[in-house]
Amino acid sequence: FLPLTLVVAVAYVLTIPFNFWRPFEQRDVLIVYNLMLFAVMALLVFATPVATANVSPSMLRWLRRGIMAVAVLTLLVSLYALSATVYRTVQGGWTINRLTIIGWNVINMAILAHLIYGQWRATGSAWLDAVYRSCRVGSIAYAEWTVFLLLALPWLFPI
Predict the structure, then answer these.
(1) What is residue 16's DSSP assignment?
(2) Interacting residues of 66 by C-beta distance below 8 A, sequence separation 6+
């Protein structure tokens, strides 16, 4: 799925200039962007091999390149989606959904930035450990944000 995701990510980035204001004005388009971001994050986790014994060095090099390309493109789309969400928040005020999505987007961007930085610094086979480290940090951040939302939303948005 990684090559297909790379094609879709390139298509998303290439269409942004032609449809720039759509996620700012249309909630449904912004929802699609955010769902795509979560799907890509899941794909990056599942595309990373647990063991490399049965994977050729050539395949590992291409896998690393693919993960990096998808991460960079996804970070660009994440910045775009976050800007649209923040714009809609400034225009219409805070809602449960906007607060939740802004938090998830910030976490996604932090994970992607951590992954990209880790890959940039990693040499040899250490790149795989850098991906694992990013996934570990991301899992903790997702769990903390979820707990925050569960505890804080009733007080921030009383019924």
Answers:
(1) G
(2) 2, 3, 6, 47
pLDDT over 70 percentage in the chain: 100
The phi-psi region of residue 94 (left if phi > 0; otherwise alpha if psi is between -120 and 50; otherwise beta) is: beta
Per DSSP, helices labelled H in 20-125 are 22-25, 27-47, 57-92, 96-121
pTM of the model: 0.89
Radius of gyration of the chain (CA): 17
pLDDT band at 1 (very low <50, low <70, confident <90, very high): confident
pLDDT digits (tens, 9 = 90+) for 87-115: 999 999 999 999 999 999 999 999 999 99
Structure tokens at 66: 């693919």
The single-letter code of the amino acid at 91 is Q
Separation CA 145–CA 139 (nearest Å): 10
Q: How far apart are CA 39 and CA 155, in angstroms?
A: 30
The b/e string for 141-155 (b: 16+ C-beta within 10 A; e otherwise) is bbeeeeeebeeeeee
Residue recorded with tokens 């390149």: 65
